Amino acid sequence: xxxxxxxxxxxxxxxxxxxxxxxxxxxxxxxxxxxxxxxxxxxxxxxxxxxxxxxxxxxxxxxxxxxxxxxxxxxxxxxxxxxxxxxxxxxxxxxxxxxxxxxxxxxxxxxxxxxxxxxxxxxxxxxxxxxxxxxxxxxxxxxxxxxxxxxxxxxxxxxxxxxxxxxxxxxxxxxxxxxxxxxxxxxxxxxxxxxxxxxxxxxxxxxxxxxxxxxxxxxxxxxxxxxxxxxxxxxxxxxxxxxxxxxxxxxxxxxxxxxxxxxxxxxxxxxxxxxxxxxxxxxxxx
Amino acid sequence: xxxxxxxxxxxxxxxxxxxxxxxxxxxxxxxxxxxxxxxxxxxxxxxxxxxxxxxxxxxxxxxxxxxxxxxxxxxxxxxxxxxxxxxxxxxxxxxxxxxxxxxxxxxxxxxxxxxxxxxxxxxxxxxxxxxxxxxxxxxxxxxxxxxxxxxxxxxxxxxxxxxxxxxxxxxxxxxxxxxxxxxxxxxxxxxxxxxxxxxxxxxxxxxxxxxxxxxxxxxxxxxxxxxxxxxxxxxxxxxxxxxxxxxxxxxxxxxxxxxxxxxxxxxxxxxxxxxxxxxxxxxxxxxxxxxxxxxxxxxxxxxxxxxxxxxxxxxxxxxxxxxxxxxxxxxxxxxxxxx
Lengths: 286, 339
Description:
The complex is a heterodimer. Chain A has a domain at 11-116 and 135-218. By secondary structure, chain A is mainly alpha-helical. Helices cover 73% and strands 3% of the residues of chain A. Chain A has helices at 2-32, 39-56, 65-87, 92-114, 140-162, 164-174, 176-181, 186-208, 218-233, 238-258, 264-278, and strands at residues 130-133, 136-139. Chain A is built from eleven helices and two strands, in the order H-H-H-H-E-E-H-H-H-H-H-H-H. The radius of gyration of chain A is 19 Å and the shape is globular. Chain B has one domain. In chain B, 74% of the residues lie in helices and 1% in strands. Chain B has a two-stranded antiparallel ribbon. Classes of the chains: A mainly alpha, B mainly alpha. At the A-B interface, helix 3, helix 4, helix 9 and helix 11 of A face helix 6, helix 12 and helix 14 of B.
């Protein structure tokens, strides 16, 4: 019982991070119907940005959050203007494989520059400490990650639902042509969606460096979880991404503990598969 | 009988394509006699295997326009069936291959039956997730070798029943026969009822449905045929390499490689997968070996990724699209192009 409680809590905490990773994917998909395979590589870039500033300047890892968010924001916008703009004209196959090409390119570029080694940050406010709360042991880094993830999620939610900018984004998502008649610069909005998607995943990457290794192929695992999360929640649904993120976190930790750690990833894809058979549009899709 | 005639007649193709096909056949036949290097020969056999995968994938991904990214699991299932039957019960290749192909096809059928209720990106993600489930299962399933893979028993003398030869020439010709069969099948397919139905679905599902095409059933049928091709490729892969593991035959990267290759060559065109394989496989192998020797990691992948991005952004119909554009411009029928 105590073990169940502690796995449930740690699963929910991880789930908040998964939700943040999936959020970027959901924004990009919601605004322009394109699945970004390179999303995991944006996470990797965010992690390296955080890692390099934290070790290079001996900075507190939490202070690297804005830096990696900014780096990934710029990367997202560059990716949009240099590649995705042209991909959008083609069929779906070309879109998928085009972003897949971007993913391979970024991954091996990182491999060339940083080498294939696993790296960790050893200093920091949250690292290596934990809180004992009855039978439940919580590490500070996971707790802090979850709190900041939820905060970032809230900010993005507010930005999209309560500001003029968010309304312009939503209008672009609903109907590009009508939005441009209303005087919205839809091209800029799409670039912004890529920037925002990058920034959220950059924050997630900076948080992840607190308790996870940094290496060039780290993106693949997380992007696959993020795909399943976004598709489970319903593409383009922000609320769906959050709930599905929590579900994924729970399945990974609880399933990993009770079924066996080697099957935890198979379990999440299997769950997704079962849900999708009965609800093809995802939990909150339309 | 008319199906056979359709498969064998290339009369409706332009003369340049017929000449190109003839050159392809002759160069494949002559290759082992002209080239003696064993590396070149192994690259050639890999090229033929990938042609087979690509021709099969082109059916659902190119003609049908359904982005199914799970070919590797069909390849893997058939390869594992052949390998395990040979290891456990000493079953000859010629008996286990049909079984392997049937396993791959049944898997395609069940999966297609459920997954084709999904559309567009949902379908693509779902196929990825399913192949990841299989990959994880095969990696962790100790009975079938787990992550260590399966090694096929080597025989002392060359044995036709078990497809063990002392020279790669035999493998080369066997693979070539498979590819030739696949090309003939595709030649029949593009003129068949199923082919037209599939292209109609790709052009517009709602319109196809209103014309009375059972889109779900047509997609499932096409997906099963794709499974057959992948199964044959997988069975051959197992006996050619004598060793398989979940990373070489079940891996997601293989599925994506097949799709990329077809797209670079030109998805939905008859020669696209062959052109794609002709470019990507030698590039991958030679560049990888050459750069890997000099200690630079990943430059080959970066070149390959840039090529993918450029093609995806500027000419989504691939190299075949470029060829067709040039041909239309040359013949002066510009307004008929872009079809």
